[in-house]
Amino acid sequence: MQLLGIVAFIVALLFSVMVHEFGHFIMAKHFGMKVTEFFLGFGKKIWSTQRGETEFGIKTIPAGGYCRIEGMVPNDVMDPGEEGRAFYRASGGRKLIVLGAGSFLHFVLGFVLLLALFMGVGTAQVTSTIAQVSSCVPPVTGAQECTAQSPISPAKSAGLKAGDKIVSINGIPIKEWAKDVELIRSSAGKSLILGIDRGSQKLQNVDGSGLPDFEITVVPQARVINGKTIGFVGIVNQFAFVRSDPVTAVKQSTSTTSLFIAASLKSLIALPSKIPALWSQTIGGKPRDSAGLVGVVGVARVSGQAVGSAKLSIPERLATFIVIIASLNIFVGIFNLLPILPLDGGHMAVAIADEIRAFLARLRGRARPAAIDVAVLTPVTMVVFVLLVGLTLMLLVADIVNPVNFNL
What pLDDT digit, counting tens, does each position of 297-344 carry? Predict the structure, then answer.
């Protein structure tokens, strides 16, 4: 099962790469730019097919992919009559759209995965179904153990049983137990009427909603936990995977995507400060920090652990895997937007600089200056590239010789 998780991660990663490059491809074609190659992987060509002016294919090293747009720099030679289709000839706005389309589709893919999670798999939630009924009210503040002198719990006195589903409190239907249970906790010493579904009847209201099989009156006992008085009934509720309706799922996916974006930004800001610790963990053998830097191999290992974990149910394994892939896509989307070459964000920064220079030229009544030649910035690009390769290799070694253990 662990191998299956690793293979699934690799497939998902390659699919994410294809989605990223497809973003560049589709927008470049939309704006009439010439796209001659769309390949998954690097190195020697394994297979390809020609579709129009674009060659699609697969190469030997599955370490990414690329979409070749002709005329990225002014020195690129275009076929006669197609000079106007060069990337560098496009307006600044079109350049930004083409360059940003890859990251945009990473965000879209992450959002869609989360939507599938909330609507299809569901999330583990406390339900209103009773899993266990306590026999007493524990005598000591915050304690859980019962003694012979402990009073019978309100739940047992009222006749509640494991398997009962609480469908209403004081006639108000239960919608989300995690929130509705607060009414019980804030009602110490007060009578509450619980609508119970024990599965013995199938009565319905006029509007089609279910009626409780019967109602039970309970009086929550007061208990002090961490200095706060709460109402205690004496029930432990079941956890279950609950699917969300489409509207709720969209809201959940939006908020979760926002959280992932914020977490990705924090991680990128903290990245330089974590490199020394990674070095000591790689060379010195210190235990890996689960909140530290993890490379592709490490994420693949975690995916394998999640999918193959005997501690998790099948829905939990699938949910964990989806969250890993969704968060990875959002992180990669953010990372690609960093304003450094050779990343897409670096090319976007150059395009923005071009437009600023053009704007200043118009203010001075001058002609638009020539586009910035990215090739001139090759030394800077190479420095950044070497640093990124060095970090990648360090993560690779760390993930192999001293992997992160999440106890899945």
Answer: 888 888 888 888 888 888 889 999 999 999 999 999 999 999 998 899
According to the model, what pLDDT value does residue 204 have? 47
Cβ 273 vs Cβ 377: under 8 Å:
no
The rounded distance, in Å, linking the Cα atoms of 170 and 179 is: 15
Give Cα 47 to chain centroid, integer Å.
33
Kindly report the backbone phi and psi dihedral angles of residue 210, in degrees, each rounded to the nearest multiple of 5, phi listed first: -75, 140
Question: Is 21 annotated as catalytic?
Answer: yes
Residue 103: name the closest of 393, 347, 324 by CA.
Answer: 347
Q: Catalytic residue, from 21, 55, 83, 355: name it.
A: 21
Give CA–CA dist 345/261, Å, rounded: 16
pLDDT digits (tens, 9 = 90+) for 190-235: 999 999 998 765 544 433 455 677 899 999 998 888 788 889 999 9
Residues 227/233/239/240 CA torsion (nearest 10 deg)? -140
Residue at token pair 């020697």:
44
pLDDT at 408 over 70: no
CB atoms within 10 A of CB 290: 11
Q: What is the pLDDT of residue 206?
A: 38
Query: Is residue 143 very low, low, confident or very high in pLDDT (cuts 50, 70, 90)?
Result: low
- Neighbour tally for 353: CB within 10 Å: 14
At residue 205, the pLDDT reads: 44
The mean of the pLDDT values for the chain is 88
What's the longest Cα–Cα distance across the chain?
Answer: 96
* Count of other CB atoms within 10 angstroms of residue 184: 21
Between 321 and 75, the more confident residue is 321
